[in-house]
Amino acid sequence: MAVHEIRRFENSERFWHITGAATFIVLAVSGLGLYARELSWLTVLTGGPYLSKWVHFLAGLVFALCQVMNFLQWRRDCSGWTEADGDWLRKSGGYLWSTHDDVPEQGRFNTGQKLMFWSTSLESLGLFATGIVLWVPFVFPKGIASLSLLLHAFFGVTLIMLIVIHVYLATAANPGTFRAMWTGRVSAGWARYHHARWWKDVSRP
Amino acid sequence: MDVSRRGFLKLAGAVSAGSALGGLSMARPIHAYAKDLPTKGAKEVPTLCPYCAVGCGQIAHVRDGKLVNLEGDASHPISRGRLCSKGAATYQMTVNDLRLTKVKYRAPGASEWQEKPYDWALQEVAKRFKATRDATFVEKDGDALVNRCDGIAWIGSAVTDNEECYLFAKLARSAGVVSLEHQARL
Amino acid sequence: MPKLAMFVDVTKCVGCRACTVACKQWNKLPMDKTHFTGSYQNLPDLTPTTYRLVTFKEEPFGGSVSWHLLSHSCFHCNDAPCVKACPVPGAMTQSADKGYVAVDRKKCIGCKYCVTACPWGIPKYESSSETVGKCTFCAERVENNLTTACAKSCPTGAIAFGERDGLLAAAKKRVEASKKIFPKAQIYGPGAYGGKGTNVFYLLKEEPSFYGLPLEPTASAALGFWKDVIRPLTGWGIGATVIGALIHYLAKGPADYEEKGEGHGRS
């Protein structure tokens, strides 16, 4: 273990995020398997088309709960828009153009993470609402049911795309980041590099 | 856990190839419903609809002594395969969960049904039919010889076929029953 | 094999319900409990175990009452929206040559996409079996060169079964003759979906709305947008995201905080 280790995530934070991530994988696989006939072969991973329907439904309920908890535990850290956030966005966080050195110092979550938080939260809400409609479509007006079919597919696909970006940024793109969620701890160097403002806060005696 | 550079490249390549294929294969649904008929290999028995006096032709599909299907006989000169709603329902005369398969007996004055053996029921019907017939048989009305039985009325069932109806009518008339009717005339 | 169709001529229908009974009998469907609703109609709507139903509508007619009967089941649309929506291979299928639409209840998983997709509300979901039931055009019979059960039993010939082109021509002739008695007589079905049409069509005595049928039945735009626009883009969208990450990784590489950090290495 390195000398300077900082606790980044509480156990409860990790529990809800990791459970949510696991159910998301199940949801993405079973959801794509139930999405179109060409992808039906994916349902072998979740027990065939019929069981996938139930797996998707039940995993969806667990995921909804996880996302509610994630929202509640991180909404304060992910709220607030400052000049620094605009600056971060203009410089693409140093990921595409500009370099890391130009990017303003970040708090506990950087601007990109905040945007990820809000977009995934809203999409999860949309997926939950439309998913409930799809489970019992006959109690809703026809227009709402068919719109839900469309929106559920749209939200699902875009959420998968967002999570692909999220996973990339948390693993290959930024070494040491996956450990933050997996063990709850980060090195001081990582903290200072990625979240300098937060690092100053937590390392202050 | 840090993903190795080589591992990440491999994974990324596989996922993008897989999803590109998923987008390409916009296959149209192919029809795959061709199946054998449920009546395949069943014996076709021509018969007549029991319900009314038109006598539409029917074909009963029988397999291993069991009725598997029943529909109109397209070669029948009267009906040419057509059946009304009652005739089309002839199948469920035989194959029906609601059909009684045991004799139910309710004694005079009783409110409960009891199950009885078939032989007992047949004997009892014969006995009481004979007793009623003997008790109410009228030989003469005034001077006229009538030989009729006023104490019995007889109604034929619609689930009996033409030949059975003939025998029932014979039996009823030989006993002097005058009030003889059949469901198809009601 | 040419396209097959059924043509229902409501001017010939006498409401005997032989078609519904023959349908139940051939498909070995259990009974549905009926309740008296003040009409001669048996059930208010199709059910998962009633694929065909005659609707009875009573209207005052010259001091008396006239019956408007409509023996209806699935319309077997060309390019059917239910088939488009179905996510299970082989569950809801359309015959490529004969044109009918059939559901295989052994493969159906009860996702109810088709229930949402159908503009007529024909497929009905059965919660006990978690499947959807609807008219199958007597697929086994049709594939073995037999007529459908309902068309075979119809005593008045109101339900005609045969090749689509021939029936369409017969229907056009019949509608001209019917107009003399029923001025609003019209053919319903072949013009649906902007001309793609259905394989079961009707000669109606009145406007479609009179029978509770939509005047311009269309597959919902949402379904089309999902299946024709978003679905083809899905693979490319997810693929592009992954490839984007890949390119980024190759071009920019992983962020290396060690140089900027305090010198504490990765654990």
Chain-wise SSE layout:
The complex is a heterotrimer of chains A (205), B (186) and C (267).
Chain A: E1 5-7, H1 11-33, H2 48-74, H3 83-90, H4 111-135, H5 142-170, H6 178-183, E2 185-187, H7 188-194, H8 196-203
Antiparallel strand pairs in A: 1-2
Chain B: H1 5-24, E1 43-48, E2 57-63, E3 66-72, H2 85-88, H3 91-94, E4 103-105, E5 114-116, H4 118-136, E6 137-141, E7 144-156, H5 162-174, E8 177-182
Parallel strand pairs in B: 7-8
Antiparallel strand pairs in B: 1-2, 2-3, 4-5, 6-7
Chain C: E1 4-9, H1 18-26, E2 53-61, E3 64-72, H2 81-85, E4 92-94, E5 101-103, H3 113-117, E6 124-126, E7 131-133, H4 139-143, H5 149-153, E8 159-163, H6 164-178, E9 186-188, E10 200-204, H7 221-252
Parallel strand pairs in C: 1-10
Antiparallel strand pairs in C: 1-8, 2-3, 4-5, 6-7, 9-10
- What helical percentage do the residues of chain A reach? 55-70%
- Estimate the global geometry of chain A from the Cα principal axes: elongated
* Estimated share of beta-strand residues of chain B: 25-35%
Terminal residue distance of chain A: 21 Å
Count the domains of chain A.
Answer: 1
User: Which term fits the overall shape of chain B?
Assistant: elongated
Explained architecture:
By secondary structure, chain A is an all-alpha fold. Chain A contains eight helices and two strands, in the order E-H-H-H-H-H-H-E-H-H. In chain A, 65% of the residues lie in helices and 3% in strands. The termini of chain B are far apart. Chain B is elongated, with a radius of gyration of 32 Å. Chain B is an alpha+beta fold and 186 residues long. In chain B, the strands form three sheets. A three-stranded antiparallel sheet of chain B has the order 1-2-3, with no helix packed on it. A three-stranded mixed sheet of chain B has the order 6-7-8. Residues 20-31 of chain B have low confidence and may be disordered. In chain C, 28% of the residues lie in helices and 18% in strands. Chain C is built from seven helices and ten strands. Chain C has helices spanning 18-26, 81-85, 113-117, 139-143, 149-153, 164-178, 221-252; strands at 4-9, 53-61, 64-72, 92-94, 101-103, 124-126, 131-133, 159-163, 186-188, 200-204. A four-stranded mixed sheet of chain C has the order 8-1-10-9. In chain C, strand 4 (92-94) and strand 5 (101-103) form a beta hairpin. The longest helix of chain C is centred in the C-terminal third of the chain and has 32 residues, at 221-252. Chain C is elongated. The termini of chain C are far apart. Classes of the chains: A mainly alpha (205), B alpha+beta (186), C alpha+beta (267). At the A-C interface, helix 2, helix 5 and helix 7 of A face helix 3 and helix 7 of C.
